[in-house]
Amino acid sequence: MTYTDHRTVRRVLSREIAGTLGLLTDEHDFRAMRHYRSFVFDDHDTYLEHVEAVLRTRALQGGHTTLALFDPEEYAEFCAQRGLDPDSHTSRTRFTAALATTGATVPYEGQPLTDLLPALVDEGVRRATWEYATMLLARLGACPSCGEDLGREAFARASRLLARILATAGSGSRHLVCSVSGPPETLIAVLHTDDDGGRPEPDDTEILEFTTVLAVGLATDKPGGLVMRTIVPGTPDRIHGWRLRAHGLEPLTAGEVFDAYCTDVESGDPIPPESNVDYCEPPDLGEDQGPTHRH
Q1: Which member of 114, 152, 211, 251 has the lowest number of beta carbons within 10 Å of its beta carbon?
Q2: How far apart are the C-alpha atoms of 92 and 94, rounded to whole Å?
Q3: What long-range pairs does 116-121 form, CB within 8 A, spacing at least 24?
Q4: Whole-angstrom Cα distance, residue 213 to residue 189?
Q5: Burial class (CB in 10 A: 0-12, 13-18, 19+), 118
Q6: Rg (Cα) of the chain, in Å, rounded?
Q7: Is the pLDDT of residue 16 over 70?
Q8: Are residues 291 and 157 in contact, defined by beta-carbon separation less than 8 angstroms?
Q9: What are phi and psi for residue 11, nearest 5 degrees?
Q10: What is the pLDDT of residue 291?
């Protein structure tokens, strides 16, 4: 094989390599990285322009790139734990490689970077919410009377309830939001599902995150709620919901759902209801929602 053939083969192989780029999404994180002399950028907007140019070039060459949310504080901890010099592009590369498997990521598919930035931030929030909710369930520990894992029991109950909610929802697109109040902050999980040929069924990760937050609401004394909007073309959207209680889900009346959606959260002032929307009571879930653990 000639030298030229070797170069051709290697170019072909290079297209088989997937890449990950750690992205600084806001000015605050960008300024934190400027403390390192090896970080050569001095303007966030210019930095983003160069990132987008690199992404487009890689895409034109047939390369696949994933964007990872680069957190300077996590990066500093990563370097300290491994004895790495944080003021080194090699250390940043190693951290980014770790983010590819453990951090918040989104694939680059040719869309403008302005569209990808909020998607990446949202993915980071989702992951942080799930991790915090998982920690809260783990802290519940075991029942002192029988030894049952209380977090695991709450998660199993939340899984059953979610399956029942979706089974009684009927056809169409469903948009579910579960919220559990803090402190230190409110946990929010969102789930989209459709059995009518529109959106694909939710992936396992989305279901896991939603179920975990729901389990926290069922297992703790923190106030919370779950609302669902069902969308069927040609008919009004239907909105109903439940309060989260230790014994299960408590249905909201149609008036309570209306008040929740037609009241400004911050001021308490009434706001106009949405058009073409029915605020209604939820369907009967039809089974005992209480915990199997009775101690």
Answers
A1: 114
A2: 5
A3: 116/67, 117/23, 117/25, 120/23, 120/25, 120/67, 120/69, 121/25, 121/69
A4: 7
A5: exposed
A6: 24
A7: no
A8: yes
A9: -65, -40
A10: 55
CA 56, CA 253: separation in Å to the nearest integer? 51
Q: Check residues 132 and 269 and name the one with the higher pLDDT.
A: 132
What integer pLDDT is reported at residue 146 of this predicted model?
77
pLDDT in tens, 18-74: 689 999 999 999 999 999 999 999 999 999 999 999 999 888 888 889 999 999 999
The burial of 260, by beta-carbon neighbours within 10 Å (0-12 exposed, 13-18 middle, 19 or more buried), is given as: middle
With beta carbons less than 8 A apart as the criterion, state whether 120 and 81 touch.
no
Total-model pTM: 0.77
Reduce the secondary structure of the chain to three states and give it as a string: CCHHHHHHHHHHHHCCCCEEEEECCCHHHHHHHCCCCCCCCCCHHHHHHHHHHHHHHHHHCCCCEEEEECCHHHHHHHHHHHCCCCCCHHHHHHHHHHHHHHCCEEECCCCCHHHHHHHHHHHHHHHHHHHHHHHHHHHCCECCCCCCEHHHHHHHHHHHHHHHHHHHCCCCEEEEEEEECCCCCCEEEEEEEECCCCCCCCCHHHHHHHHHHHHHHHHCCCCEEEEEEEECCCCCEEEEEEEEECCEEEECCHHHHHHHHCECCCCCCECCCCCCEEECCCCCCCCCCCCCCCC
Q: Residue 287 and residue 151: Cα distance in Å, rounded?
A: 21
Q: How far apart are CA 154 and CA 210, in angstroms?
A: 13
Question: Residue 15: which region, alpha, beta or left (left: phi > 0; alpha: psi -120 to 50)?
Answer: alpha
Q: Work out the number of other CB atoms within 10 angstroms of the CB of residue 36.
A: 18
